[in-house]
Amino acid sequence: MLELLFLLLPLAAASGWWLARRDQAPRATEAPGAAPALFRGLNYLLNEQPHKAIDVLAKLAEVDGEAAEIHLALGGLFRRRGEVDRAIRIHQNLIARDNLSREQRGLALFELAQDYMAAGLLDRAELLFQEVIEHDVNREQALRGLSDIYQQERDWVKCLEVAERLKPLTERPMGVEIAHYHCELAEEARRAGDIPKAHKHLSRAQQADPGGVRSTMLEGRMALEAGSPQRALDLFLRVADQGPPFLPEILPELVQALGALGQEETPVLESLAARYPSPPLMLCLSKAIERERGAAAAMEALTSYLAGHVDLAALERLLSLQSEAPSTADEGRLERDQVVHQVVRHLLAHQSPYQCNHCGFQARSLHWRCPSCKRWGTVQPVQPERIPGNEVLQGPRIA
After folding, report:
1. What is the DSSP string of 73-120?
2. Cα–chain-centroid distance for residue 184?
3. Coil, strand, or helix at residue 242?
4. What are the residue ranges in the chain where pLDDT is below 50?
5. Disulfide: which of 87, 164, 165, 223 matches 228 by Cβ 3.0-4.6 Å?
6. Buried b vs exposed e over 348-365: b needs ≥16 C-beta within 10 Å?
């Protein structure tokens, strides 16, 4: 439906332009059957027949070669159908005219820039978007086009420049995007060994998005690398409060910080699991309990957790521990458990651990910018489904 709307918009605009032109022009100069043809084209799109709509516009363009709006609509339809070469030719021919108004030229440049984007010609698209901004037509959209180009090129400094120019033009908050750009620059500085520069960008990221979890995670990792485990631990625990779904991402570092401080893992992990249960956290906790209290205690904790959560990873861990203790099971039960274990392991291997909460894109690793909908901070670790009636972890096993 959304794709159909994008196809309808240019043709509807052309229809409105044609009707306005008909009202203003003498009857004798009208192209025979022009308005009915446009409405016929709209009907084709409503019936999901865009190829017939393109035929209508193409014929109208032949009748009135000076109709810039029709050519703009026609080129846009070609691009959305994947015929980028044809769209480029139409928009290039349109721009070559010397009788276009400033607004028409700006619109034609914007459409051609989008054609180049679709064709992967980012350098040409960049130049045209900049020219569109000078024409003051579709300024916000052109700036977003530039932002998309710079993000693909990983030029975060230019992304920040564009974001600042977008601020007064858009109602959409820019803080999250700006914070992620600074985090990207902080990551680059960290890899290059320029720690002061990295901290500077992290500070700016936190100013742009005070609740941003990514900057806290990165600051914690840098504190751990700098030999400040207590500072790192405090930041990792703050991550749990800021963005509980991201807690599994810093579990290895959190455990490392606890080890450096000589603290036991289990009490901290139990406290976190009681508030923010997740598959990776429960696996980490079960291993810590097994080391410190034995396999029976680990199975007990997992059983308590699984009473309230559907979690294949935890179930696989429980079955694995159970199969390693054959003395507690008869031969038939052990065989059944091994079969169930095999099935669960197979299902787990095909489960995507990350998902975009905006478009539903599933991934095997964390992407700060969703590859599908291009939004920042929307891809998160998948959380376990809760069993109705068992919303709260029961008993003293995980407290």
Report:
1. HHHHHHHHTT-HHHHHHHHHHHHT-SS--HHHHHHHHHHHHHHHHHHT
2. 15
3. helix
4. 1-9, 17-19, 22-48, 50, 60-66, 392-399
5. 223
6. eeeeebbbbeeeebebee
- C-alpha span between 392 and 52 (Å, rounded): 58
DSSP letter (8 states) at residue 384: P
Tokens found for residue 97:
């005219």
Give pLDDT, residue 221.
97
Extract the tokens encoding 375: 């939004």
Which residue type does 301 have?
A: A
- The token pair at 381 is 């670790």
| CATH H-level superfamily of 182-263 | Tetratricopeptide repeat domain (1.25.40.10)
Tokens of 371: 């590859």
Looking at residue 174, the DSSP 8-state letter turns out to be: -
In the structure encoding, which two tokens stand for residue 384, read together?
Answer: 């376990």
* Type of residue numbered 205: A
Q: What is the pLDDT of residue 396?
A: 40
Closest CA to 6 of 74, 72, 80: 80
Q: Which residue ranges make up each domain of the chain?
A: 182-263
| Token reading at 220 | 């914690």
Q: Please, are residues 253 and 221 in contact by the beta-carbon 8 Å criterion? A: yes
